[in-house]
Amino acid sequence: MKIKSQKDFFSGLMFMGVGIAFAWGSTEYSMGSGARMGPGYFPMVLGALLALIGTAIAFKALVVQTLDGDKIGAWAWRPLCFILAANLVFGILLAGLPSLGIPAMGLIVAIYALTFISSLAGTEFNAKGVFVLATILAVASYLAFVWALKLQFPVWPSFIVG
User: Fold this and answer.
1) How distant, in Å, are the alpha carbons of 105, 124, 126, 145, 156 from that of 159?
2) Is the pLDDT of residue 96 over 70?
């Protein structure tokens, strides 16, 4: 069979790989049942669905003809680096890095850093728009994780709240 859309085919393979990895990793936890789900139930179902979607996408790439074959282009290094850096900085700011003497800065500071760093991945930067987005994300995250779910992690830097 000939690949008629390289982008879709390799995207499907990626989805299949990630889905299989999640499903396989979830076998280490108890599954439970549909009425009383264990910690492995959701990752297993999610992984299986992701693998199934990936299979459908890869199959479509082998069957449906595209105009130019949807060739895979060059790596987008700038977005890749900024998105990875934003997630790394988010994790470090949220929990701190005691081995290097970096204290936990909390959820709000981490979300602002994540939003501003990841916005540099694009070709256009609008500081006002990014600030508004970061504020909305920070408020929504606080309401969802701290207020509604009652998760226990630092919201503000320790030097502010004491």
Assistant:
1) 9, 35, 30, 22, 8
2) yes
- Residue 70, C-beta contacts closer than 8 angstroms, at least 6 positions apart: 5, 6, 7, 8
Span 133-147, mean pLDDT?
96
Cα separation, 162 vs 158, in Å, equals 5
Rg (CA), the chain: 21
Residues 128 and 40: their CA atoms lie apart, in Å, by 42
DSSP characters over 30-68: --B-SSSB-TTHHHHHHHHHHHHHHHHHHHHHHHS--SS
Q: What are phi and psi of 97, to 5 degrees?
A: -140, 80
DSSP per-residue letters across 60-114: HHHHS--SS--------HHHHHHHHHHHHHHHHHHH-BGGGTBPP--HHHHHHHH
Contact present, 58 and 13 (Cβ < 8 Å): yes
pLDDT higher at 50 or 39: 50
Domain residue extents for the chain: 6-63, 77-161
Residue corresponding to tokens 């501003």: 116
Residues whose CB is less than 8 angstroms from the CB of residue 158 and which lie 6 or more positions away in sequence, other chains included = 103, 104, 106
